[in-house]
Amino acid sequence: ADEGVLLAAAGTPLTHLREAAHAAGWQLPFDPPGAASTLGGALASAAVGPRFGSPRQYALGLSLVAADGTHTRFGARVVKNVTGYDLVKLHVGALGSLGVITSAWLRLLPTPEAVESQRVSIPWSGLSDAWMRVLEGSRFSCVRVAAVDGSRADSDPMLSFELAGDAEAVAWEARELETLLSTEADDPERLVEIRALQESSGANEEVSVALHSVPSQIPAVLDCLRAENAAVLAYPRRGEIFAHFDGSEGQRSERIVGCLKRAAELGRGHYTVTSAPVKFKEGLDVFGVREEQLAVFRNLKQAFDPDGVLNPGRFAGRL
Predict the structure, then answer these.
(1) Separation between Cα atoms, residue 102 and residue 8, nearest integer Å
(2) Are 95 and 314 in contact (CB under 8 A)?
(3) Distance in angstroms (rounded) separating the CA atoms of residues 132 and 134
(4) Predicted structure pTM score
């Protein structure tokens, strides 16, 4: 509690960790959707939510079981704990394909003194022109949520902010946001809606995708996705986009995959199909990574799991 670090087993529910951190005056910087999320699952999938970015930046150390059954540890309980390759960051997001995480040291954040929510509606036609101001606002030091909700086909996108931290700093940056983007006060519960937009609705024919883009290219990527009637949600500062398509129409699969490839090219990033009907995924590598990236993944898999016993076929390139 004195140092703001926490050690927990991989199977611990995040709700328990959140309560323990809060009781000690700290904040757990993990908020992926799903009430049943565990620490191990959040780390293995590098799951993100509205408030915080990838768990990679908060994982200080890991204990894991290697492919040959060896128990090993990487990192430590302090921030400056790496003198060579940072293997903690390698395993976070590897989906258990390089090792099985058993426990982790986490860096916690101070509980904020003040929290304020703001919003502004920006027409689709003016989003590109306003985008540099949107990025500027999303990078304010107290902004922990900056989200563009483009989920409603019949209305303009809503830009939502949540500011947290020292009360005086939050108040000052809130005024700066009002000047920069003409924002107004918003309902704090708005974050619940944003969290729900990130998740799949559970519809049988829905195709849900996570994309990564250069932040400056997000308007172009959103236009590309909306051309296929996708409901979209974007986190500008982090370059993360979530899209949901209706995959029920005939020949829809080819059109959606083509759209995703164009979007990844526009954003100079990649995509992952996180949820889709079985027929949609047949013959498709749901990880839309480039061939040069796959070469790196193959080498890593060979080095850490040469016999292919860990989660075979479940990572990019069906490794």
Answers:
(1) 9
(2) yes
(3) 5
(4) 0.90
In 3D space, the residue among 261, 286, 270, 262 whose CA is nearest the CA of residue 214 turns out to be: 270
Whether residue 262 contacts residue 228, with contact meaning beta carbons closer than 8 Å, is answered with no
Is it the case that residue 296 has pLDDT exceeding 60? yes
Q: In what order do the strands lie in the sheet with 59-65?
A: 5-9, 100-107, 59-65, 71-75
Give the dihedral of Cα atoms 137, 173, 3, 42; nearest 10 deg.
-30
Amino acid found at 151:
S
Q: Which two tokens stand for residue 38?
A: 């565990």
Q: Is the distance from CB of 111 to CB of 26 less than 8 angstroms?
A: yes
Give me the sign of the Cα torsion angle 203, 147, 55, 15: negative
pLDDT digit string (tens) for 236-277? 999 999 999 988 876 678 899 999 999 999 999 999 999 998
Catalogue the E-assigned strands of 213-316. Answer: 231-235, 240-246, 270-275, 287-288
Question: How far is Cα 136 from Cα 180, in angstroms, rounded to an integer?
Answer: 9
Q: Encoding tokens for residue 224?
A: 């590309």
| Angstrom distances, CA of residue 185 to CA of 116, 139, 159, 270 | 8, 19, 12, 34
